[in-house]
């Protein structure tokens, strides 16, 4: 994905893995929508795609959401569950597999300065020139 500001590219993003769509949305929202630092967005807990078919009474939209163990505050998870979101905790090792990875780079529209980031715990191939 390439995000343009006017006629200049300001964000380039490549994602791979099962959670390609939710991670892409999370990263674009965090960087472009909320103006967070690249490393902050990449280091945040991932959104995991539940690839399993819906259980009886579920739909593809309203099925259990996978959550990496220890990634979120217990109070936050309680609030989610109280609001009707059904959660299933997944071990951290499995969460890495379900997440996939993303590499992203920004180009400051004013200065041309480039920054890149990728979570080196998963794969390390992002580099800005």
- What is the CA-based Rg, rounded? 16 Å
| Number of continuous helical runs | 4
What is the second-level CATH architecture?
Answer: 4-Layer Sandwich
Strand content: 25-35%
Question: Could you list the spans in which at least 5 consecutive residues all have pLDDT below 50?
Answer: 124-129
Separation of the first and last Cα atoms: 19 Å
The CATH homologous superfamily corresponds to Gamma-glutamyltranspeptidase, small (S) subunit
> Mean pLDDT across all residues, rounded?
83
**Major beta sheet, strand line-up:** 1-2-5-6
CATH-defined fold name: Glutamine Phosphoribosylpyrophosphate, subunit 1, domain 1
Class inferred from helices and paired strands: alpha+beta
Helix content: 25-40%
User: Which overall shape is indicated by the principal axes computed on the Cα atoms?
Assistant: elongated
Pattern of helices and strands: EEHHEHEHEE
Largest sheet: 4 strands, antiparallel
Q: How many discrete domains?
A: 1
| Count of DSSP strands | 6
Quickly name the level 1 CATH class: Alpha Beta
């Amino acid at each position: 994905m390439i995000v343009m500001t006017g006629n200049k590219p300001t964000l380039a993003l490549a994602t791979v893995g099962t959670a390609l769509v939710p991670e892409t949305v999370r990263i674009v929202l965090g960087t472009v929508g909320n103006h967070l630092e690249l490393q902050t967005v990449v280091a945040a807990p991932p959104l995991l795609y539940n690839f399993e078919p819906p259980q009886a009474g579920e739909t593809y939209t309203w099925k259990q959401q996978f959550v990496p163990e220890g990634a979120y505050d217990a109070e936050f998870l309680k609030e989610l569950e109280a609001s009707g979101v059904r959660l299933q905790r997944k071990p951290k090792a499995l969460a890495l597999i379900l997440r996939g990875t993303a590499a992203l780079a920004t180009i400051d529209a004013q200065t041309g300065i480039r920054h890149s980031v990728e979570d080196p715990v998963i794969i390390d191939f992002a580099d800005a020139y």
